[in-house]
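Bench log. Compound arrived from synthesis this morning; before running ITC I wanted a structural hypothesis for how pyridoxal-5'-phosphate sits in the protein. Inputs:
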Amino acid sequence: MIRENYEKIMEEIEKACQGAGRRPEEVRLLAATKTRTPDEIKEAYSVGIRLFGENRVQEAREKIPQLRDLKDAEWHMIGHLQANKVKYAVELFNCIETLDRKELVDELLKRMERKGVKEIDLLIEVKLSPEESKYGCPPEKVEELLSYTLRFPQLNVLGFMTVPPFLENPEEVRPFFRELRCIRDRMERVFNKKFPELSMGMSHDFPVAVEEGATIVRIGTALFGPRKY
Ligand SMILES: *Cc1c(COP(=O)(O)O)cnc(C)c1O
């Protein structure tokens, strides 16, 4: 099932790229693995997926150590990160996609130093959705957070991530993806620096996200099937 789903998703990514004049190699599929078992994750690896995302540090602490033999797998933190979990996150993840406040920067520096972690990749999560339940840095504070984070060369800010509101019609999500890209373009001008990564798009709206410039699409249900809690 995972193989079939994977092939279908890759075809849709290709199609969206063609429509937008992009190369499919510019887009990476991240398997969103919350609630999935190590065996399901190994199956996803066996069909060719190398990028995985977990939402909760606790769950990642249980699963990732069991999956260390998936040598070139890359792990991203894609859920809200509590400051008291940073000490684990710096050792578990190659990239934290949900940097959204200065407090986390300070905690990252402290914990990286203590654990001898030389550098870490980061994306800034931007809150574009008015929903109270969504996390992220407000758009008007992104410049300030970036300016603070970029003072530290061990913190490698590669781009931006967002979780838009769930809207039935994916076309209605397009403005949110476009806004993230605009924020990225503006920050590239302000800091005279490239921020190549845009992590946006999930199972039901990823083709639209690809058309708007996504370089990472985070896919759970379209790959693994419905989540069972
Ligand atoms: C669960 C999750 C996804 C994947 O959601 P699906 O709709 O199952 O594809 C993507 N991003 C984040 C942050 C998630 O928590």
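What the model suggests: The first strand starts at residue 28 and ends at 32. Residues 2-20 form the longest helix (19 residues).
ITC booked for Thursday regardless.
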